[in-house]
Write a structure and sequence with these properties.
The chain is an alpha+beta fold and 140 residues long. It is built from three helices and eight strands; from the N terminus they run ααββββαββββ.
């Protein structure tokens, strides 16, 4: 009996999505660097006075001025399947949109499945159920 209770607690604790500790739209560049360290690379986005801080494992923080507005990362093991996100977003008003693609390409377009109220979107290839990227942004 005791081992089944411990197993249930262990399983329940592993079911949540691990969001970053940063709040999109409020976290500053210096806060990211104090937690994550110096980025591997930094790229300028001249259009909106923006910058992208690039860290290992394809983790990227997009800044507008000095404020973090988006986080792009690879999905964790539990986040890799679209079914996981459909369950995660079950009480959310979601959107699905096709991300533009090169019309000469013979590959399927990417799709964005989004829950604006949670500030999370996931990207996957149309016709697939495997998530390629997770994006955190400001909640709407």
């Amino acid at each position: 009996m005791r081992s089944s209770i411990i197993l249930a607690i262990f399983l329940l604790s592993g079911c949540g999505v691990k969001k970053s500790s940063f709040v999109m739209g409020k976290t500053t560049r210096s806060e990211v660097i104090s937690v994550k360290g110096e980025p591997i690379k930094e790229e300028a986005i001249p259009v909106n006075d923006g910058t992208i801080l690039i860290y290992g494992e394809d983790e990227k923080y997009q800044l507008k001025g000095d404020i973090v507005v988006n986080l792009f990362k690879n999905p964790s093991n539990q986040e890799r399947l679209l079914l996981f996100w459909k369950h995660k977003f079950k009480d959310c008003l979601t959107t699905i949109k096709k991300i533009s693609k090169d019309e000469t390409s013979h590959t399927s377009p990417e799709m964005e499945f989004s829950c604006p109220s949670q500030g999370v979107s996931v990207i996957y290839t149309e016709g697939s159920d495997v998530i390629s990227r997770v994006i955190e942004n400001e909640k709407k």
